[in-house]
Amino acid sequence: MAQNNDPLIIAGVEYQSRLLTGTGKYKDLEETRLATEAAGAEIVTVAIRRSNIGQDPSEPNLLDALPPAKYTILPNTAGCYTAEDAVRTCRLARELLDGHKLVKLEVLGDEKTLYPDVTATLEAAEILVRDGFDVMVYTSDDPILAKRLEEIGCCAVMPLAAPIGSGLGVQNPYNILTIVENAKVPILVDAGVGTASDAAVAMELGIDGVLMNTAIAGAKNPVLMASAMKKAVEAGREAFLAGRIPRKRYASASSPIDGTFF
Known about the structure:
Layout: E1 8-10, E2 13-15, E3 19-22, H1 29-39, E4 43-47, H2 62-65, E5 72-76, H3 83-96, E6 102-105, H4 118-130, E7 134-139, H5 143-152, E8 156-159, H6 173-182, E9 188-190, H7 196-204, E10 209-212, H8 214-217, H9 222-242
Parallel strand pairs: 3-4, 3-10, 4-5, 6-7, 7-8, 9-10
Antiparallel strand pairs: 1-2
Helix pairs in contact: 1-9, 3-4, 4-5, 5-6, 7-9
């Protein structure tokens, strides 16, 4: 992959792609592999409680399709509803992946909305950081909470754009913008993206990356949607760096007449 001068840096490691993808909900491992390649992702999340990464030798191993030599595996605590379960899951992942420290922490509050339990998330984050993990943490879009998680020592904070799997897009851009403006660690939107335009809008806010699963895996053509998301994240990042024109109430001529000859 070609190097650029605008890398995403997570826990001291540089990545060229700002699109992180999940590995669940695909019809099979081959579709998972093809969609991941089309997305250009370098970091892929793996739900330890739902995916086989070697626990069951009789079942297909996700790591055969997405080898750790090619991808940074990001174990996540999907399906955990208590801090204790989340911490236990991260420790299991570390054992399965030979001391791997980078994890995605999520502690859910209820099964209907999959909204984060922020109190339990704070508790688990403190334990995991103290235990030597590099924690990328899923949270609500509360700027105060995001700052607190950064202060605890999380290496990246990942506020939701909308509820997990909802496809609603960025519902509160002002909160996300406030989080970005106050952060000293990478901020990634996690959850809520539905289509390519949602990803571009998120990136234009100045976030550092987007993590998604359902928006790609749940599309009619996941591989094609993965390709679209890759382009949208890149375009959104370039637009943010370029600096958009100010919004104005009235039009202004694209070609001013001052200094023209008649």
